[in-house]
Amino acid sequence: MKAIYKRELKAYFHSMTGWLFLAANIFLSGLYFFALNLRFGYSGLANTIYNILFLLLITIPILTMRMMSEERRQKTDQLILTSPVSVGRVVLGKYLAAATIFTLSTLVIAAYPLILSRFGAVSMGESYTALLAYYLYGLTCIAIGLFISSVTESQVIAAVLSFGALFLGYMMGSITGLISTAGNLLTRILNVYDMTSRLEDMMQGSMELKSVLYFLTYILVFLFFTVQSVQKRRYQVSVKSLQMGAYSTGMIAVAVAAAVFLNLAAAELPSRFTTFDMTSQKLYSLTETSQELVKNLTEDITVYVLQSEEKQDTTLKQTLDRYADLSGHIHVEYKDPVVNPNFYKDYSDGNIGMNSLIVVSGKRFKVIDYNDIYETQVDYTTYSSSVTGYDGEGQITSALAYVTSEDMPVFYTLEGQDELPLSTAFQNGLEKQNAQLQSINLLTQESVPEDAQGVLIMAPVTDISADDADKLIAYLDKGGKVLMTTAYMEDFAEEMPNLQKVLDYFGLAIEKGLVIEGDSSMYYQQPAYLLPDVAYDTLTKGISGEKYIFMPYAQGIRSEEKEDVTLTPLLTSSEASYSKRNMNQAQNYAKEDGDAEGPFDVGIHAEKKLEEGTAGLTLFTSENLFTDNANSMVADANLTLFTNTVASMSDSEVSVSVPVKSYEASMITINDGTAFTLGALFMLLLPLGLLIAGILVWIERRKR
To answer: pTM for the full model?
Structure first.
């Protein structure tokens, strides 16, 4: 086999075939690398790779057309067939030679993520998973081309038939879609040859072992077909003989059956054993929040998908499979509107889009419109929209909690003091928590409503009245819960005496001045933009030890010990911090005489024991803590802190709010000079150098 491999590899480089293949593949990959990655700044490699797949339908038939057909035409195949080397080794040697040429061009593409990493953050897992899919697809195409080359003496016919076979596999998904949108026995059989759909998940950053197995079995089956094709010309044997080294229709049937059985068996394995999320945002994995909720389910839930299983959104299907794998209480059923056009009317009076979900339990149901699964952003300059995030897990987990909960919590936001309105992401977080949010002005209410699970006081600019403070304290005396953020004020107690009464209830006060961080590792860009130390607590679950909290312009919290009050610091500045007084007159952040020394608590949870139950206050001294801008700086960590706090105030005590997973990959920044230099290298210099080398070798051999 080694001699055959060396012979074939030399043949590629002694002719123009190998050089041309390398030049064409490197040129086109370099073209898309330059256009998409270097010029437009995309850090991911998947789009670049997906756009060059079609080139393989042209270049691989040229690479494989002479491998067996030329041997037949020149009658040199008889020498190989009568050699002491087995036919299997001959075929494998030829295949490995072509695979080596393809590997060389793939190695050039493999350098692209490494180059991009010099100019920004690159998700290596996503990029190399997409590259693996491309590589397996190419190796499969080579195996198919080798087989077709073995059944004809004409290189041209071999190339044309190979292109047709590869094009059929490339387009099979579209062809079966035209035959039947709902799917039938014929489309299921044809989809066995649908190669591109097996690439989709891996191109999106999901390592699918089922897809890897699919391509490997295809390679082995077509190599076996090639061996059988050659053996048929070598000698005939009885159909009853099932020897591996001889042609036999029985052996072909066994090989095909074995490949089908192996793939069907793999398809039955739970996705948690066969699918690995390689995306930087973990788009296809379930968070600990969802896993905990699902594992604790005690009642059956059915998720109806308004689509056929064959046409279901692949990303959403992956997410649903993960839920079903975690619990036997979750059942996923596909209801194709083409077959069951009136099914959804039992759950909705309006229209529901294809791929929408209906989550049903014995208590209630919830409809998840497909439009809510993906987050989109509209560019009003071009009036076009783009998908910016995936919210499949967030919507499904929220729906599961909704259909299994006994009742829905109600929260009230205090208004009338120019409070900061709750940002969009935080409103969505409350909705996923299945909480109802209502506004309340205590001036027009005799008391806080009895159904209030909690009261949100979001950075009021002016003080409440003394009467309102009494109403809040009366609410706390009944076991009420309050979440409060404060705006920066030089002397909070003086400017907000009535709100200070609420803080006094728990023995808390706000330090004069603004907390300035002296430890550069605990602030972002400037010392007033705190990245405080996050304590381990149920309220900081999923944050402490994992993420930063971004807390601009915070003030310190002072506390006095009370026998009936338990204080739990949540966010704390470093020992190098200090509270700078008179910030309005300060020229810089330098520490001055009279500034209080840290560390300071800037977030704290207080609980007061009552005769029946406990009253609770969670206090954060940053006006912008729970805003979209601050939250975007730390990958939804601030949102997680908010939803954890809200969950602790309700009877559920556990947050079921999962943030939207961003689709927006980080961009790279590269100057035009460097971009054009790299583009010229991969689009011009390297391909041109390969062509010149091939021509020189060819001319040299012509002289001999």
So the answer is: 0.68
Which residues, 6 or more positions from 418, have their beta carbon under 8 angstroms from its beta carbon? 460, 461, 462
What the block records as the tokens of 500 is: 């200070």
| The pair of three-digit structure tokens given for residue 108, joined into one six-digit string | 């050039």
DSSP string, 27-68: HHHHHHIIIIIIIT-B--SHHHHHHHHHHHHHHHHHHHTTTT
> Token digits for 58?
């042209």
> What strands, in cross-sheet order, belong to the sheet with 514-516?
514-516, 578-580, 596-597
Q: How many CB atoms lie within 10 A of CB 681?
A: 16
Coil, strand or helix at 195 = coil
367: tokens are 């409809």
Cα separation, 511 vs 514, whole angstroms: 8
Task: Indicate the SS3 state at residue 200.
Answer: helix
**Cα(465)–Cα(505) distance, integer angstroms:** 16
Q: Residue type for 180, please?
A: S
How far is Cα 271 from Cα 235, in angstroms, rounded to an integer? 46
311: CB partners within 8 A, 6+ apart: 177, 181, 183, 336
What's the mean pLDDT in 500-513? Answer: 92
- pLDDT tens across 254-300, in order? 888 888 888 888 877 877 788 888 887 777 888 888 888 888 888 99
* Tokens found for residue 533: 């130390």
Res. 242 pLDDT band, cuts 50 70 90: very low
Nearest to 452 by CA among 410, 481, 413, 415: 410
Which residues does 194 contact at the CB level (< 8 Å), separation at least 6? 169, 172, 173, 176
Task: Give bridge partners of residue 378 from the DSSP assignment.
Answer: 385
Asked if residue 22 has pLDDT above 70, the reply is yes
DSSP 554: B
Residues 6+ apart with CB under 8 A from 283: 204, 205, 277, 315, 390, 661, 663
pLDDT band at 240 (very low <50, low <70, confident <90, very high): very low
Cα(361)–Cα(347) distance, rounded to whole angstroms? 12
Find out whether 259 and 221 touch, Cβ atoms under 8 Å. yes
Q: State both tokens at 488.
A: 């920066």
DSSP state letters, 482-494:
EEEE----TTHHH
Cβ contact 639:659 at 8 Å: yes
Instruction: For tokens 């915070």, name the residue.
Output: 554
Structure token pair of residue 91: 């075929």
Distance CA 160, CA 140 (A): 17
At residue 18, the 3 state secondary structure works out as helix
Residue 29's nearest CA partner among 101, 112, 130, 100 is: 112
Looking up tokens 């020897």 gives 243
Distances (CA, A) of 653 to 310, 539, 633, 657: 39, 10, 27, 12
- Distance (Å, whole) CA 139 – CA 136: 5
> Distance (Å, rounded) from C-alpha 140 to C-alpha 144?
6
Structure tokens at 523: 């602030």
